[in-house]
Q: What sequence folds into this?
């Protein structure tokens, strides 16, 4: 069994991790696209190993107001999954779903938040299902939780969870966007043990990640 | 108040400054921002801690990540910069529960545990806590000016407050 640091994992398996993000986010993007009947594009996934103090700068700045839909992941893979939308994008999405084209602002009603959670549920489900099929690992998401707040505050939650084991955070994120105003991120955050399970499920050998 | 330079710190990060400068951290969620100051020399510092207790986890090399080791380090650095240890006072903010699941059992209420651990450490070090704005379910951006001791707190959709 080989020992891998987070840096080595990121370096040696960057392409593999990107491919996981690519397949997961590809499925999630097409689920979202079908649901809204909109054409959506996505970026090449980024595999980022971040110092905690730099987490806030990722994805557009710590004080940017975003809608975060957060699911804890259990089963063979533990960790979390986050679906992040810029506040105007979340408003746009809610207006399409609720057929309230004139609603504005970042104050969402309970029903609107509930709709956002449901979107999060469906598309993160698409992401995780494809990951599960590819790795043959059981991935069981929790019910979705939502927060509308500054990005730094939203990301503090998965960062703290990762921080109990590591001094950096490894995440796979993919940006999606459309020619109408819809943009956001899928962020996959397996814990360290789960990264080693993913590698071994894909035939990359046994590793301990520390 | 003279406008000085404002240093930005991230998670598990700290900084020390003197007037007219300030220190800010953007979007504190379940983390806690602890501001410490000597009101006479006006040397102060801010730390953004993520976890309550360095002794509870195996990987604890990152000093500013934890309330216990982080506050000790912050005190050490403000004293090195000219603050008098016995005059130090503190203000704290943050420790929110960003998502509803965090309101469950104690293990997941990391915001509350961060606040409790910060207060306990300050008490142990005999540093009075003059004010706090903690808990609840929203993120906070904070700015600390050691010159006045003003700890400015901004949250989405809420009026700015100074503690």
A:
């Amino acid at each position: 069994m080989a020992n891998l640091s987070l840096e080595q994992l990121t370096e040696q398996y960057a392409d593999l991790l990107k491919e996981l993000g690519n397949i997961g986010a590809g499925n999630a993007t097409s689920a979202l696209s079908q649901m809204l009947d909109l054409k959506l594009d996505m970026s090449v996934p980024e595999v980022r190993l971040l110092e905690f103090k730099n987490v806030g700068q990722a994805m557009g700045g710590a004080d940017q107001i975003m809608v975060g839909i957060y699911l804890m992941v259990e089963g063979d893979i533990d960790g979390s999954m986050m679906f992040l939308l810029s506040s105007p994008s979340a408003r746009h999405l809610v207006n399409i779903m609720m057929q309230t084209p004139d609603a504005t602002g970042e104050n969402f009603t309970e029903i609107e938040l509930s709709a956002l959670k449901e979107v999060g549920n469906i598309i993160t489900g698409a992401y995780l299902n494809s990951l599960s099929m590819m790795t043959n690992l059981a991935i069981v998401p929790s019910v979705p939780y939502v927060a509308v707040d500054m990005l730094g505050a939203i990301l503090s939650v998965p960062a703290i969870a990762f921080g109990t084991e590591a001094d950096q955070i490894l995440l796979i994120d993919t940006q999606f966007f459309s020619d109408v105003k819809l943009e956001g991120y899928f962020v996959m955050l397996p814990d360290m043990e789960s990264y080693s399970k993913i590698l071994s499920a894909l035939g990359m050998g046994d590793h301990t990640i520390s | 108040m003279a406008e000085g330079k404002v240093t930005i710190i991230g998670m598990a990060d700290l900084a020390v400054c003197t007037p007219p400068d300030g220190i800010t951290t953007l979007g504190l969620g379940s983390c806690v921002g602890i501001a410490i100051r000597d009101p006479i020399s006006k040397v102060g510092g801010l730390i953004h801690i993520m976890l309550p207790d360095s002794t509870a986890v195996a990987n604890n090399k990152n000093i500013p990540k934890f309330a216990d080791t982080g506050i000790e380090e912050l005190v050490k650095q403000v004293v090195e910069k000219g603050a008098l240890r016995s005059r130090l006072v503190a203000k704290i903010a943050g420790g929110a529960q960003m998502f509803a699941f965090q309101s469950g059992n104690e293990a997941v209420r990391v915001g509350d545990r961060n606040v409790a651990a910060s207060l306990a450490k300050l008490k142990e070090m005999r540093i009075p806590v003059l004010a706090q704005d903690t808990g609840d379910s929203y993120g906070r951006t904070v700015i600390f000016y050691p010159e006045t001791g003003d700890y400015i707190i901004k949250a989405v959709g809420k009026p700015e407050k100074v503690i």
In short: Chain A touches chain B through 37 residues (CB under 8 Å). The first helix of chain A runs from residue 6 to 12.
